[in-house]
Design a protein that fits this description.
Helix content: 40-55%
Bound molecules: pyridoxal-5'-phosphate
Largest sheet: 7 strands, mixed
Strand order of the largest sheet: 2-8-7-6-5-3-4
Order of helices and strands: EHHEHEHEHEHEHEEHHEEHEHHEH
Structural class: alpha/beta
Shape: globular
Number of strands: 12
Length: 391
């Protein structure tokens, strides 16, 4: 039987055994959390406990936690919720948002949808190094020839390069310009210690399936006192911010992972060492290899590489045949031959972007897996290059 090795944790994570073990118990809590009779009490307790554990993990107040179905919904809710709320307050006022250049499609496509309703959008450029271009950001914020910026949306950590952005600094500049700040923290959860209070953001998005729990659960943190219009109107759940009977099973799973605050710190150290060793070995064993974003502060697990003369899709398929799961750019865009827009925004050429590979390690990744991966990668690169040269 072929060994399967999973190095695509930025696409989704396997479910932790602590979570799997408790699923039968949570399934027995089938009541509606809004019911005031006995059947609602267990689910209501799960909801309350997860709200508290999540708030403790990310450094916010429990009442700021709004449960959603995942990262995409959280991002939609933040952007559309702010837009609609401001529109309702003042239908005539021009609205302008600033958005990062490497955001996930759940941000960029939401922006395109809101532009049809009159929203003005400017993109905050990213440098070739993978860092945000802070000078351009300041210029965009203070441009007096344009409508005032009402919201900035910038991811905390990038899904492709793993680069961690200076959110605290960016929030400070947004405040000076009188703008609200949203961060998509989907790729930061469980990878770096987070404190929303310290970062001082107004809104932050999260997804449970990137954090060893179940699909179908996410969070949008909304700072106390701020209003958003809900995307889903319904029974008044989540303090009128997100209607619909709560997904108790997936929320309970997220809550279980939130208790692993100490493990986040342990894995941070361990996975950083493993990723650094992987990169050092790739540098030695794969000629011409280049690393994207490696000079910046990064989440511990991600390595984005360009392997010249080797097409990323070809490499991915060859690795897949040998049992290795990696990615070329974002998983959500795989299946499409177009190079990743995020990498192009950094200034990579189409050719470089097409030769890119993303390796994202996780809590269960081991030195042995890294070694097996290196051996296969080395062999496949040599084979593909010699096939290319013989054409
Ligand atoms: C940065 C980022 N934001 C949002 C999402 C979407 O999250 P979900 O899959 O929970 O909708 C992803 C998923 O890849 C992501 O990487």
């Amino acid at each position: 039987v072929q060994k399967q090795i999973y190095f695509d944790h930025n696409a989704t994570t396997p479910i932790r055994s602590e979570v799997l073990q408790k699923i039968p118990h949570w399934l027995s809590q089938w009541g509606n959390a809004s019911s005031i009779h006995w059947a609602g009490r267990g689910p209501k307790t799960i909801l309350r406990d997860t709200r508290q554990s999540f708030a403790d993990l990310v450094g916010c107040h429990p009442l700021e936690v709004v449960f959603t179905s995942g990262g995409s919904e959280s991002n939609n809710l933040a952007l559309k919720g702010v837009f609609q709320n401001l529109r309702l307050q003042n239908p005539q006022a021009p609205l302008r948002f600033l958005v990062g250049a490497m955001e996930h499609p759940s941000i960029t496509k939401t922006c395109l949808a809101l532009m049809k309703l009159g929203l003005q959008i400017d993109t905050i450029p990213v440098l070739r190094s993978g860092e945000v271009d802070l000078e351009s950001y300041e210029r965009l914020l203070t441009d007096s020839t344009r409508p005032k910026v009402t919201l900035v949306s910038h991811m905390t950590a990038n899904n492709e390069t793993g680069v961690v952005f200076p959110i605290k600094k960016m929030v400070k500049l947004a405040r000076q310009a009188g703008a609200l700040f949203h961060t998509d923290a989907v790729q930061a959860l469980g990878k770096i210690p987070l404190s929303l209070e310290h970062l001082d953001v107004d809104f932050a998005s999260f997804s449970a399936h990137k954090f060893y729990s179940l699909k179908g659960s996410g969070v949008l943190c909304v700072k106390k006192g701020l209003q958003i219009e809900p995307l889903i109107h319904g029974g008044g759940q989540e303090r009128q911010r997100r209607g619909g009977t709560e997904n108790i099973l997936a929320i309970a799973a997220l809550g279980e992972m939130c208790k692993q605050k100490d493990e986040v710190l342990i894995q941070y150290e361990r996975v950083t060492k493993l990723r650094n060793s992987l990169e050092a070995q790739m540098r030695e064993r794969v000629s011409g290899i280049l690393f994207t974003g490696a000079q910046c502060k990064r989440v511990p697990n991600t390595s984005s590489v360009i392997i010249p003369e080797v097409d990323g899709e070809t490499l991915l398929m060859n690795l897949d045949m040998e049992g290795f799961a990696v990615s070329t750019g974002a998983a959500c865009s795989s299946g499409s031959p177009e190079p990743s827009p995020g990498l192009l925004a950094m200034g990579l050429t189409r050719k470089e972007a097409q030769s890119s590979l993303r390796i994202s390690l996780g809590w269960s990744s081991t030195e042995e897996e890294v070694e097996l991966f290196l051996q296969k990668l080395e062999q496949i690169v040599v084979r593909v290059r010699s096939l290319n040269n013989s054409k």
